Fold this protein.
Amino acid sequence: MQQAEKKQRENWGSRFGFLMAAAGSAVGLGNIWRFPYLTGENGGGAFIVVYLICIVVVGLSIMTAEFAVGRRTGLAAVGAYKSQNKNWTFAGALGVLSGFFIMGFYPVVGGWSLAYMVKSVTGLLAAPEAIGDVFGGFIGAPVEPLAWMIVYLAINLVIVAKGIAGGIEKAGKVLMPTLFVLLLFIIFRSVSLPGAAAGLSFLFKPDWSAVNGSTVLAALGQAFFSLSLGMGCMITYGSYLNKKENLPSNALTVVAMDTSVAIMAGLAIFPALFAFGMEPTQGPGLVFVVVPSIFAAMGSIGTLFSVIFFAALTVAALTSSLSLMEVVVAYLIDEKSMPRKTATYLTSAIMAVMCVLSSLSLGVMSKVTVFGVGAFDFFDILTDKIFLAIGGMLLAIFVGWFMKKEDLKDELTNGGTVKFGLFEVWYNLVKFVIPVAIAVVAYFGITAIAQKSLMIFGLLIILVLAIFSKKL
């Protein structure tokens, strides 16, 4: 029966389509929003070097492992763990829960990006001194951001409901090339501005005096989170792969594309930032406040570049949120035998309610808190600081200590038909090095949270999942 089910499972229509979808899952707001401001806060070029090392050592290894687990089992996150070891079902459930919680606030930010495409041509850039106030007033409004969130979430629903080859793959084939073209367009303008050389120097001339322990931790955390690891996305996408695909090669391609977009985002922002005499250490407000100010300073052409930039940001957000929704939908299809469209509609409805709470928590419901924070920050902190790090660490432990080494080698070499000369290096990294590295990031990330009760709540959820996971 299990084999019959696997034969009926959806598959990617082509390698290109899979690569675009998987790279899209990795590429998200973390590349165009989070990476630039972390680079600005951590010394520029030196941070990028440390980040690249973390990507190669940790990110590439974990992605390869997730692809292997997904294709080996032919199941999404929960089923993949359960089929290998029922005691580990909770690790897959944690990935599904992470997808739910991330999609409780991610479409809100995606809606902001859509809105700013329109605002760019309706007067946002006309008063540069008021851009910060406009953003604060917009996200705190009770209706407008909700309307944009619904539009954004509806786009996700339509694509995911159409399935793997007919929906997610088709969208990826269009969205990812579009993202690269849009970023190249902005980069060309940014680096051609007078004074842009200072921004390029900041990006590519390492200042090692700026590197300390927190820099390394920030780089490792960004490398891990930017690749959509630890939340079941790549296990789920890997489960739709056929047995002829070269997993290590595909993982390398996806990681390279994800990293390229992050570097391109830096090239799009920092040369212009320095050209207009702005500070690189602008923090999380860099994209929605500082970047529009840059475009406003460009004059009439700035409107066009603002539209293009927020279109790129929207595309990046969309490619990631599709995979997050698919993790939950795939669970309902695999484990609850639910039709795809029904699973998608149910998932979207629940996520919409969570997003409403998140959006309103930034305005009219700002005084309503859970463990001392609003709904938006609650979902963000619970996933980014707790669930994803622990999910990635659990995956490494599971693959390194609970799966047979021979099975992994067989999967990564396609039964010996393709070469993977670095198998021993990869295996030892996953088994011994990466769990410790991720544990360090998780420890410092969790202990940095001011809301200790939220940290305890998150760990309690994981404990409950571990106890009751056999019923999932």
Summary: The chain is about 75% helix and 0% strand. The CA atoms of residues 95 and 232 lie 5 Å apart. The mean pLDDT is 90. The chain has one domain: 2-471.
